[in-house]
Write a structure and sequence with these properties.
With 289 residues, the chain is an all-alpha fold. Helix content is 68%, strand content 0%. Helix 5 (93-115) runs parallel beside helix 8 (172-196) and helix 5 runs antiparallel to helix 9.
Amino acid sequence: MSGPPDDELDAAALAERYGLERIGARPGLLAYTRDVWQRRHFLWTLASGRAYTRNTDNYLGQVWSILNPLMLAATYYLVFGVLLTTRGGTENYIAFLTTGIFIFSFISTAITSGASAISGNLSLVRALHFPRALLPLSIAVAELINLIPTIAVMLLIVVLSGEPITWTWLLLIPAVAMITLFNAGCALITARIVATARDVRNLVPVGTRLLRYVSGVFYSIDYYTTESLGALVLAYQPVALYIDIVRSCVLRETPLQAHLWAFGAGWAVLFSVFGFILFWRAEERYGRD
């Protein structure tokens, strides 16, 4: 087999000599990470713009960020707390359900929105040169921005339900930071998968719906499961784990457990690192389909 022509070899050597790089080529992982960090202000602009414009076409605007989980919590309380009575193993079911709904909405929205991070912004991807990871990362940050007012409402409901204000509320800060890191990893993973196989986007809502029913959002996993491997999987899968961690910060009936925080930190690091590397590996292919 013949190799590349001599003129191509000379051009490649000349480009290397003067530090020229191929357009659209994937940079090294460290260089890519530096590039993302250097554009952190662009990431913040993307995230804040996304958070602000989410409900601007509705009359109530940003109020829907609070009304949606509130209405969902009220519906779940009627169905599961009153009609099906799944409040077993809980003392303050209103606070238990509210924290579950608000935190699950925070996670599930990041996952579903991350699925369209690339496919929904193809014009931007094809027009400008920037690390494509900024798009799914901005979704995770936007969800964090939207969470701030909903957390305030959640805490108000918790207090009105009879829970006292304690120092453990301060632990919500590292808890939310862990969940945001996990959300970023999930957004990167779903963005990469959907950019490669568009049809998967239709399966993401199905997956998040399934997660809602196996994550202890409206029932106590410990109360309704037996001591088995399946019960351990349910309790320690990341979504259920993060909901439990947040509950331990604001509910007296849920004790703080150091090993849960260790598992939570592990899931956050694992998903964020794996998601970042997985997304980076296809960097040169985004927007070219």
